[in-house]
Amino acid sequence: MSRSWTLLLLGGGVALLAALPALLSAGLLNASIQMLIAALFACAYSLLAGRAGLLSFGHAAYFGVGAFATVHAMKALGGNGLLPTPLLPLVGALAGLVVGFVAGWFATKRSGTTFAMITLAVAELLHSLAPQLKGWFGGESGISAMRMPAWGLTFGSTVEVYYLTLAWVLLSLALLHFHGRTPLGRLTLALRENGHRLKFLGYDAHGVGLSAFVVSSMFAGIAGGLQAINNEAANYVVFDASVSAAVVLNSYIGGVGSFLGPALGAALMTFFGYAVSDATRSWLLYQGMLFVLVMMFVPVGLTGLFGAAARLKARRGWRLAVSVSALAVVATLCAAAGVVFVVEMLQRLCSHDYRALAAMGGSWPPIALFGRSWAPGSVATWLVPAPLAVAGLLGWAARRALVAPPVQPPEAAAAVDRQEALT
Amino acid sequence: MDTIVFALLNGVIHGLLLFMVSAGLTLVFGMMGVLNFAHASFYMLGAYFAYTLQGIVGFGPAVVLAALLAGAVGVGVERWFLRRVHHHGHAHELLLTFGLSFIIAETIKLLFGNHPVDYRVPASLDFAAFSLGSQQYPMYRLLMGGVAIAMFAALWALLTRTRVGIVVRAAIYRPRMAEALGHNVQLVFMGVFGVGAALAGLAGAVAGAFYTTNPNMALEVGVMVFVIVVVGGLGSLGGAMLASLLIGVITSLAVGVDRSIADLLAFLGARSWAEGIGGLLTLKVSSLAATIPFALMLFVLLVRPRGLMGEEA
């Protein structure tokens, strides 16, 4: 894609984000705030996991520290003086930076699994200590504070909080992107590719890893601070393992290889959670399935699919690229519909109420789902998802056959083999 | 005195159970360098399988069948999931098992509900083994410990006294060499993965009846199992045993200690200073029981990253 196209898309995206309050209801706007925060958190996380290749399983620690520091500052300073409400995330950034420096100093001395385990241990340590330390973390009930007016803004409405969040997230994303362009960002990439070589070239590999850790935890702290401002409270639940888990899932579903991949993944999954969690209790199951499927079949993440489509267009023309992409989308939707049907039926069949009802009546009453009722005992019901799943699988098989490179004449293939053997 | 003996015994038995779960994990970890995040899920699966089956075949057969089923699931996970992403690298395998643990927990919630199920020790095993002072000690606890010890002995004999054990150990320490000598390392790995899952399943089937069987039990044990594997050392069964017992006993004893660091400092005459600072210093040890294993893990990772009995990496 050319530079002007990228700029145009970026400008359009920012304009759309800025116009959102006029377009959305208050509930959706609140969901947008959550999406923005999750996007920033995922981008901060993937600076460490994607750019530096250091897989952390305890990033909730720095998110949570940022949230608590911000709430304390909000309470103590009242949004006045040197640190008015819009600047409060700076406290979160500072807290994330300091704690990230201490934890990162030890963690980045190791790499691979040991690194992952250290980050996990730090997060679990905080999570198990936090409810005991009432002075710092407010025990089980947490700490709350009030957003105070500043700079002529009251911060009483969701719209003002939204713009505050948007400004901080855009600024942070820009800085995170800029980090990739600096020499330090390039060294961070080098650390991921080959730490030994980096060391051999005379660079301080530990320092580079530590810098990535600190920058990442600082921006995670900002995200935590924004969350604290939005909720006007912080609770030790922010240290929960599920927060660390969510950011890993979000980032990899979106794709840590590209800059905006984790942000889009996080926004998508947060919205998915918001929209689907009301409709079904199994949304975490869908999230887990999506994650495993992405890991198995699209290891570069969902945003990597755009790149794959673009490459296909460059190689085989737009006609094939569009038809193949459309086929893939339709096949995926079919298979997904089949899976959703089975999961939802099972969920209703296994629910407490239904089992009690079945035990009382001695038979299996019909289940209301998707606007009609289904007899769970009848074969016809379970034949509904089967063709959907088969259609999905067939669609994917057809896609694979279409995408496969055309068969080369033997001598050309041999030449390619020789070429590959040489390189 | 009685309480200390009881706490010690409870700690040892809890440690033995933890060892049962971590044995398979530590072997797989030693072999592939991959921490399987879904390992504790097999523990949970074992409990749920046994709970479902006990109504049909009775308690004893249900426990055995549950272990076998968990092992079968483990083999399936290795064959159809892990092996397919192996070429993407360790991080990828780690993430995949992480996703699988999520799916298993959520599927259990879907089928059995997000609350504990009524899986209990059968009445025929629910009696006191002996009493000390006024307290009675349940027989079932001793039984759990016995199962774990029998398992450790069997595993140890298998690994050190049989031909299969030689191949497995060779595949753990020098996989390339074992492969070059004509052993099917892929198959060995699948076998170890399956046996590990079966052991975890057995532990779950046995322990689930005594503790609670709920969809969060994998999460609770899972992190503790990582602590054990890391503290014990890469691929070392003996290390896993040592670390399991250590953690079982420490947490069990810590729950009963109603003292804080400030009490300790009181011997130095610094009590008021410590109370002035507050925070960590005035927290009772009993409320830190959940924290101690992680502190221990962090300490070992920083001071001796290969673990208590692990090989030099």
UniProtKB/TrEMBL annotation, chain A:
<protein>
    <submittedName>
        <fullName>Branched-chain amino acid ABC transporter permease</fullName>
    </submittedName>
</protein>
<feature type="transmembrane region" description="Helical">
    <location>
        <begin position="200"/>
        <end position="222"/>
    </location>
</feature>
<dbReference type="InterPro" id="IPR043428">
    <property type="entry name" value="LivM-like"/>
</dbReference>
<keyword id="KW-0812">Transmembrane</keyword>
<feature type="transmembrane region" description="Helical">
    <location>
        <begin position="31"/>
        <end position="48"/>
    </location>
</feature>
<keyword id="KW-1133">Transmembrane helix</keyword>
<keyword id="KW-1003">Cell membrane</keyword>
<keyword id="KW-0472">Membrane</keyword>
<feature type="transmembrane region" description="Helical">
    <location>
        <begin position="259"/>
        <end position="277"/>
    </location>
</feature>
<dbReference type="InterPro" id="IPR001851">
    <property type="entry name" value="ABC_transp_permease"/>
</dbReference>
<feature type="transmembrane region" description="Helical">
    <location>
        <begin position="379"/>
        <end position="398"/>
    </location>
</feature>
<dbReference type="Pfam" id="PF02653">
    <property type="entry name" value="BPD_transp_2"/>
</dbReference>
<feature type="transmembrane region" description="Helical">
    <location>
        <begin position="55"/>
        <end position="74"/>
    </location>
</feature>
<feature type="transmembrane region" description="Helical">
    <location>
        <begin position="86"/>
        <end position="107"/>
    </location>
</feature>
<feature type="transmembrane region" description="Helical">
    <location>
        <begin position="283"/>
        <end position="308"/>
    </location>
</feature>
<feature type="transmembrane region" description="Helical">
    <location>
        <begin position="161"/>
        <end position="179"/>
    </location>
</feature>
<feature type="transmembrane region" description="Helical">
    <location>
        <begin position="320"/>
        <end position="343"/>
    </location>
</feature>
UniProtKB/TrEMBL annotation, chain B:
<protein>
    <submittedName>
        <fullName>Branched-chain amino acid ABC transporter permease</fullName>
    </submittedName>
</protein>
<feature type="transmembrane region" description="Helical">
    <location>
        <begin position="187"/>
        <end position="211"/>
    </location>
</feature>
<comment type="similarity">
    <text>Belongs to the binding-protein-dependent transport system permease family. LivHM subfamily.</text>
</comment>
<keyword id="KW-0029">Amino-acid transport</keyword>
<feature type="transmembrane region" description="Helical">
    <location>
        <begin position="281"/>
        <end position="303"/>
    </location>
</feature>
<feature type="transmembrane region" description="Helical">
    <location>
        <begin position="6"/>
        <end position="27"/>
    </location>
</feature>
<feature type="transmembrane region" description="Helical">
    <location>
        <begin position="94"/>
        <end position="112"/>
    </location>
</feature>
<dbReference type="InterPro" id="IPR001851">
    <property type="entry name" value="ABC_transp_permease"/>
</dbReference>
<feature type="transmembrane region" description="Helical">
    <location>
        <begin position="242"/>
        <end position="261"/>
    </location>
</feature>
<dbReference type="Pfam" id="PF02653">
    <property type="entry name" value="BPD_transp_2"/>
</dbReference>
<feature type="transmembrane region" description="Helical">
    <location>
        <begin position="139"/>
        <end position="159"/>
    </location>
</feature>
<feature type="transmembrane region" description="Helical">
    <location>
        <begin position="217"/>
        <end position="235"/>
    </location>
</feature>
<dbReference type="InterPro" id="IPR052157">
    <property type="entry name" value="BCAA_transport_permease"/>
</dbReference>
<keyword id="KW-0813">Transport</keyword>
<keyword id="KW-1003">Cell membrane</keyword>
<feature type="transmembrane region" description="Helical">
    <location>
        <begin position="59"/>
        <end position="82"/>
    </location>
</feature>
<keyword id="KW-1133">Transmembrane helix</keyword>
<keyword id="KW-0472">Membrane</keyword>
<keyword id="KW-0812">Transmembrane</keyword>
